[in-house]
Structure formats: C-alpha cells, structure tokens
Amino acid sequence: MPDQPLYRRVLLKLSGEGLMGDQGFGLEPQAMDRIAQEVQTVCDMGVEVCLVIGGGNIFRGLSGVGAGLDRTSADHMGMLATVINALAVQSVLEKVGVQTRVLSAIPMSTVCEPYIRRRAIRHMEKGRVVIFAAGTGNPFFTTDTAAALRAAEMNCDALFKGTQVDGVYSADPKKDKNAERLEELTYRDVLTRDLKVMDASAISLARENKIPVLVFDIHAPGAFADVILGRGKSTIIREGD
User: Fold this and answer.
1) How would residue 22 be classed by pLDDT, with cut points 50, 70 and 90?
2) Rounded Cα–Cα distance for residues 44 and 68 (Å)
3) Interior CA angle at 162 toward 161 and 168, to 5°?
4) What per-residue confidence (pLDDT) applies to 241?
5) If you average pLDDT over residues 166-182, what whole number do you get?
6) Distance, C-alpha 43 to centroid of its chain
7) Residue 3 within any structural domain of the chain
8) Per the CB 3.0–4.6 Å rule, which of 143, 151, 167, 174 could disulfide with 54?
9) Residue 4 covered by a domain
10) What's the pLDDT tens digit per position in 56-73?
11) Domain-embedded: residue 1
C-alpha cells in the first residue's frame, strides 16, 4: 500500500446530515469535531483540501416547496443554511489549528469572502482549507452539483463524497439486507442504473472533467486519510477502460 497520498488537491463533499450526529436537526459538536479531525489529518499529509457542505440539517429547499414556498425562494433559503454550516465547520477547524476560509457564492462580506476562483486557489496554495458555501449561487442546482463544479474549477484530482455508508450499494443497505456493495463504477453505470450517489448533473459534470468520485463513510475514524492513501474502503466512480 502506498505511504504517500494518491491525490494532491481534493474536494470533500459533506451532507448537512453528517453534521447533526444522532440529533434530528442542527449541529452536533461531537460530529463536527470528528470531521475536523479527519480534515486535519489529511491536511497534515500535505494534501490541499476544499469542502462543499449541504444544508439539509437545517433546511431543505424541496421540503420548503412541499410546504408551499416558491422554488427559487426555497432554494435560496437552503443556500443560506449551507453558509451556517460552513461557518460552523470553519470554527471547529480553526479550533484544531487548521486555517480556513469560507467563500460564498452569494456575497455576504460581513461574515465571509465572496467566491472568486483565483482567490480560492491562492488560499489552497497557502495551505488553507477553503469551504465553498451557498452552492452554485443559483436555484435549481444541488450542492452535489456545486461540489462537482468547484472541483472542476479548482482543478481537483478527485471529489470525495463523505456519506453515512462505506461506499455505493445496489440499494439502500439500511432498508435492503441483500444490497450489494460496489467497489468500482463508471459514470455511465451510475446514470443508467439510477444509483442515488449524486444527482445526474453532478455526475455528468465530473465525467466531462474526468474527475473521479470516491464515496466513503465519513464517520469511520481515519477513513478520509485511508482513502487518500489508497487503503480505505470506498467506491470509486470513474471512466471505464
């Protein structure tokens, strides 16, 4: 197994649910501390890291639509939820000594920096973790799509998706005991089999830019670093031979 990271610069996509631990809503300090330790370990290996975090632990745009809100307004509310999460994760990362900057696609200069591609790249070159907030800044796009977009813009070597399970399964393993764990997939497999990994636009964007997507369990201690080193348990999605 290699002792050196397989990737120089990566984007880590986290769901908002990953920050709420066993709670049904909001932020759990222990869950955020675990994630901060995972990111710190990878940064200490010399890997440049940026993050995109969802907002589902606070507000989901589609849920708002179901409650009668206009889709555009609901999506903007969801973007603001991702800013709350980004600021929270920035705080816990800096508490463990990791310099972090939050860049928002919706300008709000009193709390974070506006998203400027060259500025984000410069932050990463200086060893800072960059958290991209507010999705793409546009309604009708998910944070998965934002993650694929930012990974392409930052010239990332890979997109890591930290989930609640250790890879991609043929069905939901929590509901189907016969669900098969899949070690490797092509982008086409994900699209044609309608596997619920990331939405179709995110997978298509990763495919167009030849960015491999690695899906792993963010809650397993040391999993992020292990996958970076090629040792961990994950599913890799990339172009077929």
Assistant:
1) confident
2) 46
3) 70
4) 62
5) 89
6) 16
7) no
8) 143
9) no
10) 999 977 777 778 899 999
11) no
Render pLDDT for 131-141 as a digit per residue (tens, 0 to 9). 999 999 999 99
Give one DSSP letter per residue of 104-143, joined into a string: ESS--TTTSEEP-HHHHHHHHHTT-EEEEESTTSSTT--H
Residue-number span of the structural domain to which 136 is assigned: 9-237
**Rounded distance between C-alpha atoms, residue 230 and residue 217, angstroms:** 14
What the block records as the tokens of 86 is: 């980004």
pLDDT at 108: 96
> Which CATH number is 64's domain given?
3.40.1160.10
Please answer whether residues 235 and 215 qualify as being in contact, where contact means their C-beta atoms are separated by less than 8 angstroms: yes
Where is average pLDDT lowest: 46-60, 161-175, 199-213?
161-175
- In angstroms, the Cα distances linking 8 to 153, 213, 225 are 15, 15, 13
Report how many domains make up the chain: 1
**Global pTM value:** 0.94
Give a yes or no: residue 123 inside a domain. yes
179 DSSP assignment:
P
Instruction: Report in angstroms the alpha-carbon separations of 174 from 92, 127, 143, 158, 178.
Output: 30, 38, 24, 27, 10
Using CB atoms within 10 Å of the CB of residue 121, give its burial: 0 to 12 exposed, 13 to 18 middle, 19+ buried: middle
Q: Helices in the chain by DSSP H: which ranges?
A: 29-44, 61-66, 71-95, 117-125, 143-153, 187-192, 200-208, 223-228
Q: Is 27 helix (H, G, I), strand (E, B) or coil?
A: coil
